[in-house]
Write a structure and sequence with these properties.
Layout (H helix, E strand, L loop, with lengths): L1 H23 L4 H46 L8
Keywords: Membrane, Transmembrane, Transmembrane helix
Protein name: DUF4229 domain-containing protein
Organism: Solirubrobacter deserti
Length: about 80
């Protein structure tokens, strides 16, 4: 639950807060607040996407290593017909 909050809810709240600041504040600083909050929300979302993409590569390497161990033991690849 905490991981879902960090991955999706927190970036959405930051972007939403940026638009609230944009429409609620009447000073020139509203553009700075909007850019700061929306930028940080999108950066957090991108960081999560890139981390998940990197972790996916680790799973593929582990699958390749187990296939190589199977090949060394049986003399054929696991997906080859017997």
């Amino acid at each position: 639950m905490a991981l879902t909050f960090l991955r999706y809810v927190l970036p959405a709240l930051l972007v939403l807060a940026g638009f609230v600041v944009l429409f609620a504040v009447d000073d020139d600083i509203r553009w700075d607040g909007w850019a700061m909050l929306v930028g940080s929300g999108l950066a957090l979302l991108l960081l999560n996407v890139l981390f998940r993409y990197g972790a996916k590569g680790d799973e593929e390497r582990e699958a390749e290593e187990s296939a190589r161990e199977y090949f060394a033991e049986h003399g054929r690849w696991p997906d080859d017909p017997a």
